[in-house]
Each structure stands twice: as structure tokens, then as C-alpha cells.
Amino acid sequence: MTPAGILATPGNPFLWDTFPHTFMIIDPEYLVPELRRFRGVKDVEIVPFPSGKELWVVLRDPIDTDRLHRASASLGYAVVKSGSLPSKLPRSLAEMIWDGTTHVVTRHPHGWKKLISTLGSRPAVKIARDLATGDTVCHINDSDGLAILREYLKS
Q1: pTM of the entire structure?
Q2: What distance in Å separates the CA atoms of residue 49 and residue 36, rounded to the nearest whole number?
Q3: Closest CA to 125 of 42, 43, 68
Q4: Residue 148 and residue 143: Cα distance in Å, rounded?
Q5: I need a labelling partner for 91 at 20 to 30 A (CA). Which of 34, 40, 85, 130 fits?
């Protein structure tokens, strides 16, 4: 694995992540115009976190799980449903206990690793519903997640 910082050069928007073969997006600004050109994209936001920047892609339509499954499987990932119980609660209560996540795309769809990915330990893609607007938001933080989203939007 390459140490952090070696790949963080101008023109290279990715930095090695803690998982093999994935890169964290450190300079996502150049990706915004490309993603906005896709027909199904409503908006793209760059959200900074202490661990790096995430792309939050707001989709025009609710997620098509069959298309997401096909796009994820092409890179060896699985789609895991999450948040089904909190999603049925009234909005005021749901906002207190749920972040809106409906699906995660992870390489570990079973057991303990599924739970960790569901709780947010860097799944490739996290699909959430904005509780205020009802929009579908894809959280992308690495190169595999970006590839899955591109494949999903193309199909």
C-alpha cells in the first residue's frame, strides 16, 4: 500500500484509502461538472469531513435497486438494505434516530462486517433519503463508489 501523500499530487484526485485497491477522493471539484451532465443527477455537493471529502450526488428519481445491484456487482460489491424500520416512523421521530440511509454498497454483505458497513465504516456508496426534501442522495467517498455511481447513471 502506498503511504498517504505520495498520490496526492496535482491532477491526481485520489489518495490511497485504508482498504486495498480503493482511493479516497481528495480533490473532487473537477468531478462535479462531469457528474452534473448525467441525465439522472439533480445536484452535486462536496462535503468535507475530517477523514476527507465526500461527493453527495442528489438524484432526480428514487434509486432503482435492480440497476444499483447490476452496477455494484460489476465491481464485486453487494447492495445491502438498511434503515427499513426507522423509515416507517413519523418524520419528527425518524430525524432523531435515523440519518436517512436506505442502502449501502459494500464488499461485506454478511455478519459483523455488514453491520460495520451499515453503520458507516466507509461503504463504497451510501444511499440516503433527505428527510427534509425526500430527495435521494448518494454519498461517494472513494474511486470504487464513483465507478459504481457512473455505471448506475449510464444504465
Answers
A1: 0.72
A2: 22
A3: 68
A4: 9
A5: 40
In angstroms, what CA-CA distances link 142 with 7, 33, 125, 148? 14, 18, 8, 10
* Domain ranges (residues) in the chain: 28-154
DSSP for 83-129 reads -TTGGGS-HHHHHHH---EEEEEES--SHHHHHHHHTTS--SEEEEE
Rounded CA-CA distance 41/137 in Å is 10
82-109 pLDDT, tens digit per residue, is: 866 666 667 666 666 667 788 888 876 5
